[in-house]
Amino acid sequence: MCPVSIKGVLQSPEGLVVLMLNERDEWELPGGRIELGETAAQCLAREIDEELAVAVSVGEPLDSYLFEVIPGKHVFISTYRCQLLGGFVPTVSHEHKEIGLFEPGQLPVNLPWGYRESIIKALGL
Fold first, then answer.
1. Domain boundaries, the chain
2. Beta strand 4-9 with 73-85: parallel, antiparallel or unpaired?
3. Can you tell me whether residue 17 is helix, strand or coil?
4. In sequence order, what E strands does 1-117 have?
5. In this protein, which residues make up the domain named Nudix hydrolase (predicted)?
6. CA distance 113 to 125
7. pTM of the model
């Protein structure tokens, strides 16, 4: 069975897309693995709080797909639209190298296709 990861499309107050740089030097949406007893929304709100130290409300689902993280290792990804609650002063956690804020039309090249597709759906691009 594949692990399940819940990811969120989140924008800064200026409308920039929030991405996280992982250990593989790929940009990804914030979020992470769901824990037993959590709903997808609870998981995503918790993960974004842990990774960015910001609060969000979790909206509608955007997409779900099987992602090959590295050859032979797959993760089931579900993405959701998110909205900031309160201020936006993000702090990078130990789980990522850095936080990136990108114009919706200028997403980085090293952003996997599934995350890119979820951003396009969320923002109506």
1. 4-123
2. parallel
3. strand
4. 4-9, 17-21, 27-28, 31-33, 55-70, 73-85, 98-102
5. 1-125
6. 14
7. 0.91
